[in-house]
Specification:
This protein is α/β, with parallel strands linked by helices and 271 residues long. The protein has a single domain, classed as Rossmann fold (3-Layer(aba) Sandwich), CATH 3.40.50.300. It contains 10 helices and 8 strands. Strands 3-4-2-5-1-6-7-8 form an 8-stranded mixed β-sheet, with helices on both faces. A hairpin with a 5-residue loop joins strand 3 and strand 4. The longest helix has 23 residues.
Length: 271
């Protein structure tokens, strides 16, 4: 049975990095995998293509060309594609997603694959960006322990519930204090009726990966085990529709409690 996996999160939180490494982990295990970038910036697949930008599907559609040429093989045999979008300030990227998937489905390009990953930008800002959720997908949300990241994650979980899409869980991508963030994000996940399915600490070598257009699998095997573990956990995971979103006040109270505790702990250690 094909697994459709939609990865969401605040802009800049590391969705594309995690999506690319999950794709690589599954590809190296022998699964047939596609990664479809849904961000107009079309940068979701760069780690798998050696920083070579693939032709956006919407560009081909606008020029009346066959979109099959927009699907190229990258590292570990991953099929890489970028939806693309309008020029900044012109048109609606969400509507572009709808159009692109119409063509993809008509040509049955993704049929027969084991796993299709959708890397979706930022927050759920319009109906178009909910489309990947509605493709029989399980939703995974990437967040750090920062308030604005959790705020976006909370809204995405609300969007998944509204779209009747199952939430697979939360993936922590640590930004400042791994131990504090893992406790905070775990508490957040449990409060909304979900769970943490993966934790990524700060990995310095990922900066080099971005420059070279490579994954950690190609550069240093020891860090790759982090992504292999998340990939295994997702395949064994059972997503749930029994989730709830928090009010802004509830979320602020949770974050404030953890930040205050961390501050008090630090002060005690310094005395």
């Amino acid at each position: 049975m094909k697994r459709n996996i939609a990865i969401y999160g605040k802009g800049g939180i590391g969705k594309s990095t995690i999506a690319s490494h999950l794709a690589a982990a599954w590809g190296l295990e022998g699964y047939s995998v596609a990664l479809v970038g849904c961000d107009p910036k079309r940068d979701s697949t760069l780690l798998l293509t050696g920083n070579r930008r693939v032709r956006p599907i919407l560009d081909a559609v606008r020029n009346g060309e066959d979109i099959k040429g927009c699907f190229v093989k990258g590292y570990a045999g991953i099929i890489c594609a970028e939806v693309g979008g309008p020029e900044p300030g012109v048109g609606c990227a969400g509507r572009g997603l709808l159009l692109a998937f119409e063509y993809i489905d008509k040509l049955r390009i993704l049929d027969g694959l084991d796993i299709v990953i959708y890397d979706v930008p930022g927050d759920v800002v319009c109906g178009g960006f909910v489309v990947p959720m509605k493709r029989n997908s399980e939703v995974y949300v990437v967040t750090s322990g920062e308030y604005l990241s959790l705020y976006a994650a909370n809204n995405i979980c609300k969007g998944a519930k509204s779209a009747n899409a199952p939430l697979g869980g939360i993936i922590l991508n640590s930004k400042f204090n791994f131990e504090l963030e893992r406790k905070l994000v775990d508490f957040f996940a449990n409060t909304i009726g979900s769970k943490v399915v993966g934790e990524v600490p700060y990995i310095k070598i990922l900066r080099d990966c971005e420059v070279k257009g490579m994954t950690v699998f190609q550069m240093r095997e020891e860090e790759s085990e982090i992504f292999k573990d998340i990939a295994r956990r997702i395949l064994k995971n059972e997503p749930s529709k029994n989730i709830k979103g928090l009010s802004d006040e509830e979320l602020i109270a949770i974050v404030d409690r953890f930040y205050s505790y961390a501050s008090q702990t630090q002060n005690s250690q310094n005395e």
